[in-house]
């Protein structure tokens, strides 16, 4: 039989405080799955709702600062997982969960949310082709945003080195989990803010993974940051069959990180072929210009009057007419004088034109000769090449202890870089 004298006695407030301590100490932080009902968004920005299942209901509140981080539409009937602290209200002996993080529960609900987000961004024009920036044929610097550990970054490095050896700048970022969105956005902003050594193209990459692993790349804030990037962006997330929202907004989508490296760089052979084409074109231009000038001069000769032929025609005409009248002779003399005058005018004009063309050709020849790269070397300039014969145009391209070749007007010299 219970001894009533040994049963502890509490006031209502004491008992409420005891319950509060017991509940909050026993549970602390919890993760609760349920359906939202009675949802209200207060003018203050706080969210008030219930979490329920088929048997029970739990009150919940999410305060303004954390509510602003929820990136999906909340409403009655939505299945969610709420992470937070269990607290009690002594005045009414009620308990509730203070929500610090809210997630959609179930892949079906997540897919529905992503599709609604895609339709929204599509309607805003973020995926329109008119906004796509061209990927440079040859990038001096490529920025890569991915995890600094793992196979992805190594695959990208090896592929780029095998094709043309472009310089890489790597921004280490989480590629899944809570930090991924923030760190990837930070990487995009970091590269775009650079004033010096700014990449010509960005690659956002991660390897394959589960649907949940790739959720960060469906984040609306990340999609908008990719859209705002002034640097062209190549997305390379997951495998070829994986599609995320940044694939739609990126300037180019690559099926794999390795493919992204190939799309961002030309094959060295293709680059050399293109350079040889321009070289041949530059060498042909001066010769073609001179040939066109000579053809033009030959065409001018057609318009010159042959004085000898003109005199023969006049003499033949005089012989045929056998004119003895002095007046006619005077007219003939006048005609001869006029002809002489016309001839002298034509000859002086042609001579002047020929002198002008000759001077122009000589000046052009001098210009072409003075701008030949060997003539430039005579003025004190030099060509600097690395061990592979590649031109070095910046001190940042020279590596310590690397042998370099200096080509001057009268020969070459080989040096070793001590510091850069």
Write down the CATH class of the domain at 112-266: Alpha Beta
Helix vs. strand class: alpha/beta
CATH topology of the domain at 112-266: Rossmann fold
Report the oligomer. Answer: single chain
In percent, how much strand structure appears in the residues? 15-25%
Q: Looking at this structure, what is the CATH superfamily of the domain at 112-266?
A: Response regulator
Strand order of the largest sheet: 1-2-3-5-4
Q: Can you name the CATH architecture of the domain at 112-266? A: 3-Layer(aba) Sandwich
Distance between the termini: 92 Å
Total count of helical runs of at least 4 residues: 12
| Main pleated sheet | 5 strands, mixed, barrel
Return Rg in Å.
42 Å
Description:
The protein is of the alpha/beta class. Among the domains are: 9-105, Beta Barrel (OB fold (Dihydrolipoamide Acetyltransferase, E2P)), CATH 2.40.50; 112-266, Rossmann fold; 377-416, no CATH class. Helix content is 45%, strand content 21%. A hairpin with a 4-residue loop joins β2 and β3. α4 (151-163) runs parallel beside α8, α5 (180-193) packs parallel to α6 (220-228) and α9 packs antiparallel against α11.
Topology:
Elements: H1 12-27, E1 29-41, E2 47-52, E3 57-62, H2 64-67, E4 79-89, E5 94-104, H3 107-124, E6 141-146, H4 151-163, E7 167-172, H5 180-193, E8 201-206, H6 220-228, E9 233-237, H7 245-249, E10 252-253, H8 257-264, H9 268-301, H10 307-321, H11 326-370, H12 373-378, E11 383-385, E12 403-408, E13 411-416
Parallel strand pairs: 3-5, 6-7, 6-8, 8-9, 9-10
Antiparallel strand pairs: 1-2, 1-4, 2-3, 4-5, 11-12, 12-13
């Amino acid at each position: 039989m219970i001894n009533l004298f040994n049963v502890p006695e509490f006031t209502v407030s004491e008992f409420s405080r005891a319950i509060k301590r017991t509940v909050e100490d026993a549970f602390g932080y919890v993760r609760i799955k349920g359906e939202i009902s009675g949802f209200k968004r207060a003018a203050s920005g706080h969210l008030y709702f219930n979490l329920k299942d088929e048997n029970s209901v739990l009150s919940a509140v999410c305060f303004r600062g954390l509510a602003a981080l929820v990136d999906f539409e909340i409403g009655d009937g939505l299945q969610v997982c709420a992470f937070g602290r269990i607290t009690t209200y002594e005045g009414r002996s009620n308990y509730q969960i203070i929500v610090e993080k809210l997630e959609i529960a179930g892949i079906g609900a997540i897919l529905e949310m992503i599709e609604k987000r895609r339709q929204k961004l599509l309607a805003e024009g973020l995926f329109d082709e008119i906004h796509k920036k061209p990927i440079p044929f040859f990038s001096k610097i490529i920025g890569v945003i991915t995890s600094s550990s793992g196979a992805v970054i190594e695959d990208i490095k090896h592929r780029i080195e095998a094709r043309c050896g472009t310089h890489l700048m790597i921004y280490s970022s989480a590629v899944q989990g809570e930090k991924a969105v923030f760190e990837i956005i930070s990487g995009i902003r970091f590269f775009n803010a650079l004033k010096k050594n700014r990449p010509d193209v960005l690659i956002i990459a991660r390897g394959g993974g589960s649907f949940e692993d790739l959720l960060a790349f469906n984040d609306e804030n990340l999609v908008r940051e990719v859209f705002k990037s002034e640097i062209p962006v190549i997305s390379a997330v997951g495998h070829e069959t994986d599609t995320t929202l940044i694939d739609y907004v990126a300037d180019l989508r690559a099926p794999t990180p390795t493919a992204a490296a190939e799309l961002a760089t030309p094959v060295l052979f293709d680059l050399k072929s293109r350079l040889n084409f321009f070289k041949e074109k530059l060498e042909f231009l001066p010769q073609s210009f001179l040939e066109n000038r000579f053809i033009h001069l030959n065409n001018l000769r057609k318009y010159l009057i042959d004085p000898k032929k003109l005199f023969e025609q006049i003499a033949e005409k005089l012989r045929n007419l056998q004119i003895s009248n002095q007046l006619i002779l005077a007219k003939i003399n006048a005609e001869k004088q006029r002809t002489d005058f016309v001839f002298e005018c034509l000859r002086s004009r042609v001579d002047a034109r020929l002198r002008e063309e000759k001077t122009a050709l000589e000046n052009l020849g001098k210009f072409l000769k003075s701008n030949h790269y060997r003539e430039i070397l005579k003025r004190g300039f030099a060509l600097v090449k690395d061990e592979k014969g590649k031109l070095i145009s910046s001190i940042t391209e020279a590596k310590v202890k690397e042998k370099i070749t200096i080509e001057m007007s009268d020969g070459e010299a080989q040096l070793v870089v001590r510091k850069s």
